[in-house]
Structure formats: C-alpha cells, structure tokens
Amino acid sequence: MTIELRLFGTLRAYLPAGHPPPGVQLDMPPDASIADALARLAIPPDEVALTVVNGLYERDRTRRLSDGATLSVWSHVAGG
Amino acid sequence: MPKTLLVDPDKCTSCRLCELVCSGRNADAFQPARAHVRVTIDVDEAFYFPRVCLQCDDAPCLDACPCEALVRDPRTNAVVILHDKCNDCRACEAACPYGAIRCWDDRAWKCALCDGDPECVRFCAPQALRYEPAESWPAAARQAYAARLRELAQEARP
Amino acid sequence: MTHAYVGQLLRVDLDRRQTRTEPLNRDLARLFIGGRGLATKLFSNEVDPNVDPLHPANKLILAAGPLTGTAAPCGSRFMAVTKGPLTGAIASSNCGGDFGPDLKYAGYDLIVFDGVAKEPTILVIDDGKVELRPAADLWGRTVDEVEDTLHTRLGRDFKFVSIGPAGENLVRYAAIINDKSRAAGRSGVGAVLGSKKVKAVAVRGTGGLTAADPAGFRTTCLDVLEKLKNGAVTGTGLPRFGTAILVNVINEHGAFPTHNFQQGQFPGAEKISGETIADQILRRNRACCSCPVACGRVTEIKGGQYAGRGEGPEYETIWALGAAVGVSNLAAATKANYICNQLGLDTISAGATIACAMELVEKGVLTEQEIGFPLRFGDGEALVRAMTQIGRREGFGDVLAEGGARLAAKYGRPELFMGVKKQEFPAYDPRGILGMGLQYATSNRGACHVRGYMVSTEILGLPMKMDPHTTAGKAAVNIAFQNLTAAVDSAGMCLFATFSIGAPELAALLKTATGFDYDVDELLLAGERIWNLEKLFNLRAGFSRKDDTLPPRLLHEPMPAGPAAGKTVPLTEMLDEYYRLRGWDDQGCPTPEKLAALHL
Questions:
Q1: C209·B33 Cβ contact <8 A
Q2: Do the chains C and A touch each other, judged by at least 3 C-beta pairs below 8 angstroms?
Q3: Domain B1-52+115-139 annotated CATH 3.30.70.20
Q4: Phi and psi of C520, rounded to 5°?
Q5: Which of C159, C210, C301, C448 could bond to C443 as cystine, CB 3.0-4.6 Å?
Q6: A56 — contact with chain C (CB < 8 Å)?
Q7: Domains of chain B, residue spans
Q8: pLDDT below 50 — which residues of chain B?
Q9: Are B21 and B122 in contact, with CB atoms under 8 Å apart?
Q10: In 3-state terms, what secondary structure has residue A68?
C-alpha cells in the first residue's frame, strides 16, 4: 500500500535529500503501523511530539495505517 | 584559572532578563538603570548587543581611582569597588572606555561577577552570556566584541 | 503596597489638560490583581456601560500588572481596557514589548485617560515628571515615523505606545502599537485613543521594583525559567518557528479557515507556514522584555514590489492575511502585515474584513465598480491596496474600516460576517475544534482565541488531550481556561507561558512578588471574579444570550471537506452547560449568589 508521510517543524531534516516539503509517498507492507512509517525515514520516535492520521490525532503508534492514509508528524508544536 | 564572562551577541534575543536579574541581585531592585549589564537594541537593524564589563587585564579604572577603592579580586579576576573607600569622584567612570561604570547614591558601581556566579548567566536562556574558561573566548571574537563595545560607549556619551 | 506594584496610577484629564497621581487601592489590587482585572474594575466603576465608545466620556486605561517589569520570565505585558468601538463590549487588548515595564520604572502602574484633547497631543512621562505636549506635527504620521521622531526629540531610551493613521481615522479595529510592531490589537482600542486626540505616550524611567520575598521570588523565577526552557512549545517550537508553526498543524486538522470560512483547508498553507517563514524571511528572533521564549520574528522581504522590513507575521496574522483572503504569496501577506503595523491596524480584523468583502464580491453582491479595483480571493496586490486604503479611510477603505459585521449588513448579507459581537474570528474554524466554538461565543470581548485557548487541549494536547470533534467536558475546561487566563493577563504574564507553567507557578510568583498570600484557589477565584465583572459590564451595555452565538454558517453549514467534513458546531448544548457551570441563569446572567460569592 501507499501512504503519504508529511514532516513538519524540525522533522523536515528527515526528508530525503532534495525532496520538497512537506511529504513523501511511501510504499509500505499492508499491515504497516505509524511506527513502521517513522522508521522508514529513520525518524527517532522521541523526536515526534504530535502524530495525526488523516487529520485526526492518534496517540497509539502501533496503530495500523490504511492504503492512501496521510500521516502528519511534528517535532514541537506551539500556540498562536 | 578564573573564568571569564563571555558574550556571544549573535545568540542574544533582546529580552533584557539579564538587566533585571543583575539589578535584582546587585541593587536589590528590578531596575535596568542600575544593572551592570545593559543590552543595546536596534530592531530595525536586527542588532542586539549585551554590554558587560570586560574586567580588563590592564584596567584604566583601577589606575584612575585616587582612593584605592578599586581592587582586583584574585578569586574571580574581577575589578571590584570597595564602597567604604569610594568618594564618588567619578574618575573611574570617566576612565572606562566601555561605559561599564555608573554612579548612584554617591558611589560608583560596576560588575563584580557576582563573586564567581554571575546572575545574568544563570538566567540567560539563549546562552548569549556564558561564564567559561578564558580560552573558550577566541581572541579575535573578544577583540571584535571589545571594539564594538567601545564604539557604543562613545556613541552613548553626551 | 511597596512590592511589585509601583503603588500609584496617573489620571489624565484631556478636557482640562491636567494630570494627577492617585494611590492604588490595596484591597482592590488584591481582589483584581492588576492589569486587565484592576483596570476593568476601575473602568466599570467609572464609565456608563451605555456610553458611545468614541464619546469623550469613554475612558481608556493602560494597565501593567504586578509582575510586569520584574524578573518574572514572560512578565512584560500591559493591557488597554476601554469600551470597544468595534464591539460595544468591554475591550481589553494585551501587549508585550518594553512599554509596560518602562511605564512602571517611570512611576505608574496604570494610566487612565478621560475626555478629549483640543488638539493632537502626546503624553510624556519622564521619571515621574508628567507633561501633555501638543503634537500636531505628528498627526497623520505612521507608527514608525512617530517612534523615530520621538526618539530623536526626547531621547533614545524612551519607550512608546502610539496610534497610526488608522487610530486617528477612527477605524473600528485600529490598534495601539508598542515598539513599532507589537499591538494591543483587538476591538479598536486605537480608535478610542484617536478619538481622544492622543497620538502617543512616551515613558522613560530609572526607578525600580522590589519583591516582597526576594529569595522566594528568585527561586520561583528560576523554576519558571527552567520549565519554559525545557517545555517543547516554549523551549523549542516557539523560538525556532514562531507561532506560525501552527499553520500546518491547524491546516492538517482541517480547521484552517479559508476564503472567509468557506473551507477548512488552504492549499497554499505550506507557502505561508512557520517553517517557510523561518527559511525565507526570518532575520532574527525578537523577545519581549524578560521573555526567554522570543517568538517574535524580525523579518525582511528582499526586493520586488513587496520589499520591506519589519516584524511578523505571527500565526493569526499570516492566517488573516493569507488563508482567510486566499493569498499564498508570503511576500504580499508580510507586506500587508508591515502596513498594518505602520498604520496601526489589527491584522486579524483587517484581513478578515477584506475576506468578507471578497466573498461579497464572489457572490455578486458587491461590485468591483463600487470598490474601485478587483478584490478577489488570492489577489495579494489587492490585499495590500485595500489595507492602505483602510488605514487612511480612502475610497472603499472607508467602508471596510467599519469592520465585517457592518460591511455585510450594509450589503444585506449579515450572515456572511464571520465573527461574534461584531468582532472578527481569529484563525480556527470551530467546526473542526468544537470547544473553540463555545469560546468564541462566550468571550467577553467578542470573537477571540486568547480568552480560553481550547486549541491547547483539543489539538496540542496541553495540558491533556481532548477530542476536538466532541462536546463532552468542553464547557468545564473552557471555564477553567477563561478564569486562569484572566488571572494571567491581570498579573502581567504572557499567556504563552502557560504552555509550560500553570496556576501553581503563577500563584507562587504573585505571592512572593506582592506579599499577598495568594494560593491557587484564590488566584482562580480572582480570575472568575474578573470574568464575571466583564460579563456584568456587557449585560449592562445591552448584551444578552442572543449575542453569545455564532454565524449560521458554523451552526448549520457542514464543513465541506477534510478531516472535519460534515461537522457543524452544536453550540446550544455546550452553552447551556457553560451557563450552568458558571452559576449563571439560562439567559447568561450571573445569579445573586454567584456575585456574592465573588464579592461583586
């Protein structure tokens, strides 16, 4: 399956070199979890502060993603 | 070897917390006018510059004092003012090329490095002010800082 | 009253060109803390709630809090309290920078302006020496010109608040500006100063402030400093990317109001995000006095038609001058921000009013002939042009200067105004963050995010995570946030500090600074007291339950797409619960028992 992983804040550093922000398409096995997707780009789990799947907050990083999902992650967030 | 109060102006964010805690400790009030560290701020030029006493090796203030009220503290290498000897003649204030001495309440006042634990350093979140071994401040950077400090002091004089 | 407070306020009688000093009432200071709370107490004691906001009998109070100017990290704030020309409700606009601290070093906690000057005037306070000076030559000048001129004329070490042409021209959302770029922005406080012919206030002071318990205060300040440095938001997020880091956060949640709240996601979000601002235009951070966070952005647009230098944009601004009006050109939006600062306009209401006009054009209700130029979503050039016209009330800017509510009503489409109590919404669509809907409806100064920032819990998970798409528990949390925020504002503390500290730290700061024996309960009770006092003023000014509502679009039109697709705001159920938990009747009036419990 294919998912889109979008990186924000300081996590931008983990985008593949030269890749435009915010996200990359990833081919993942059908039962892949949030953690698997983060591992694909070698993002250290403790650098991720906020995880959002299809616009909804998701605390559980073992949750499986579905085909076409958008996973958005932030290092640090802030208020306005 | 005593440490030195090192200034990295590029890291300053212009918050002036150093002025507040310095005066809080050394003047018993949150009173930037009496702080030994002062920050020059020019937002148009994105220029922030904390001004501190360099505790010069060859200190003009020490030489200028006629009543031996200024002495070197060997523990910290700071030039400190003995207030019971100071007669408010202001010779030290005039002698300092960096504007680091101010006169209040019939006495001269300057930075004494808080006896080796500078309060400004303790509160500087961006670490623009640090208290480190002298060699961590490269000579070129220290000279550039001193030159700019002297210019700002001259501009501030009436 | 010798600690933290200066202990005196300045009364400025503009009719008689007289000033006098008055001691601060110690009992009132304890009950209402200072800043927003104490100013609201004085204001509601002294001003008829039915006064026309632009009439000389309306007063305007600039008020620092007890922590303002002390070493309390993030304690730099002052408030402008008056009756708002945009809303007709109590207005209290918060501002940081250096003015608040220096007002106290110069000798005053508060300044109360009354009446109207015969000619343009500035108030100069130089170490307790107070003078009203004629300033006809400054009238018509931008904020930058005023500050530069007064720096030359009075001295480099003066600090200022001033109004731009927008305040002089009584634009209903004119701001009071401090340090060239910091705004007491909302509700038109700048127009009130303009109506009084006060162009600027200059302060310089060499005085100092003490803490009642210096050692205890220092320990508490160090504790707060460590928490601010180590907090993810205050230690890294805000310093690195500024508040506009939120652009992508809110957009990804589908609650980023686009094209006057017609959609919840903006395709151009990435181009105006905090990340892009940091990459492309950031010169340096800028901190308010005593703030270890430094979220301010000193920026520059190099070259091209939008070239310029200044501060900003922060999150609400880049939304109002970006997604709200469909502009994804960061240079154009930033230029519009600089113009707002120089002319003295609230960026939120200015951008949102232009967005409302753009929808009226899109719907064919308002024609380009009337406006004098094309005004369509996405047109950065039109945005900049409209902004300049608003500040000077030139051309169609004269209509836009009245705000979105009056604009939409004038063209027979009042439902297209996106706001509450005639004040435009900030940058969150409550259909995707339901608690914000309740917050907007109940805010005492009209639509506002900084009276009870539900985004913190519903989106950011601070201090705990709540589901943004349900209503359960929202009323109780919103009330707690509103009460705490009232106390924070009154203390002189920046609201952003509460991402990393809470009521216990604030109570400890206040207790050790003032010597008043505050604890968490008394602090939150003071916040509740202030909130109820503001509510009472509004009730006497003619507001009622029917005004605690949202535009029909948010109540009845489902969000068209994105993560919040299909959502509307179920306001009535939240509002009923809110009134009940507040101890108010079903019309939103505080009960006699509640008022007695609050000593009101």
A1: no
A2: yes
A3: yes
A4: -60, -40
A5: C448
A6: yes
A7: 1-52+115-139, 55-110
A8: none
A9: yes
A10: coil
Q: Which amino acid is at C264?
A: G
Q: Measuring CA to CA, which residue among C159, C204, C166, C168 is closest to residue C185?
A: C166
Q: Which amino acid is at C561?
A: A
Residue A16, token pair as written in the block: 């593949």
Tokens encoding B114: 């808080």
Q: Which architecture, in CATH terms, is C434-499+519-597?
A: Orthogonal Bundle (1.10)
d(CA C589, CA C594): 10
Min Cα distance A30 → chain C (Å) is 23
Of A57, A75, A78, the CB nearest to C465: A57
Q: How far is CA B118 from the centre of its chain?
A: 11
Do B1-52+115-139 and B55-110 agree at the fold level? yes
CA atoms within 13 A on the CB side of C228: 30
d(CA C443, CA C482): 8
CA atoms within 13 A on the CB side of A23: 18
Which residues in chain C have their CB less than 8 angstroms from residue B32's CB?
101, 105
Q: Tell me, what's the pLDDT at B158?
A: 54
- Residues composing chain C: 600
Q: Where are the beta strands (DSSP E) in C413-452?
A: 419-420, 423-424
3-state secondary structure of C148: helix
Q: Which fold has domain B55-110?
A: Alpha-Beta Plaits (3.30.70)
What is the rounded CA–CA span in Å between residue A45 and residue C388?
Answer: 48
Helix (H) or strand (E) holding A5: strand A2-8
Both tokens of C3, joined, read: 């600690």
Q: Please give the interface size between B and C, counted as residue pairs whose CB atoms are below 8 Å apart.
A: 90
ipTM at complex level: 0.96
- CATH fold, domain C239-424, is 1.10.569
> Cβ of A77 under 8 Å from any chain C Cβ?
yes
pLDDT tens digit sequence for C527-574: 999 999 999 999 999 999 999 999 999 999 999 999 999 999 999 999
Decide if A79 is inside a domain.
no
CATH number at residue A54: 3.10.20.30
For residues C302-315, b (16+ Cβ closer than 10 Å) or e, as one string?
A: eeeebebbbbbbbb
pTM check: above 0.80: yes
Q: Which residues of chain C have pLDDT under 50?
A: none
Write down how long chain A is: 80
Window 8-47 of A: residues touching C by CB (8 A cutoff) are 8-10, 12, 21-22
Q: How many domains does chain A have?
A: 1
With 0-12 / 13-18 / 19 or more C-beta atoms within 10 angstroms meaning exposed / middle / buried, residue C542 is exposed
Residue C79 contacts residue C49 (beta carbons within 8 Å): no
Phi-psi region of B144 (alpha: psi -120 to 50; beta: other; left: phi over 0): alpha
Helix (H) or strand (E) holding C286: strand C282-286
Domain residue spans of chain C: 8-204, 239-424, 434-499+519-597
DSSP letter (8 states) at residue B45 = G
Q: How many residues does chain B have?
A: 158
CATH of segment(s) C8-204: 3.60.9.10
Collect all residues from C whose CB is shorter than 8 A from any CB in A. Answer: 232-238, 240-246, 248-249, 252-254, 270, 273-275, 295, 314-316, 319, 426-427, 449, 453, 455-456, 459-461, 465, 467-468, 496, 499, 562-564
pLDDT band at A79 (very low <50, low <70, confident <90, very high): low
Residue located via tokens 């961590």 = B136
User: Could you check whether the bond before residue C134 is cis, i.e. omega within 30 degrees of 0?
Assistant: no
Residue C268 tokens, joined: 């151009």
As a whole number of angstroms, the distance between CA C493 and CA C68 comes to 7
Strand C8-13 relative to strand C110-114, pairing: parallel
Please name the residue that has the structure tokens 């179920």.
C570
Full domain range(s) for residue A53: 2-74
In chain A, which residues have their Cβ closer than 8 Å to the Cβ of C293? none
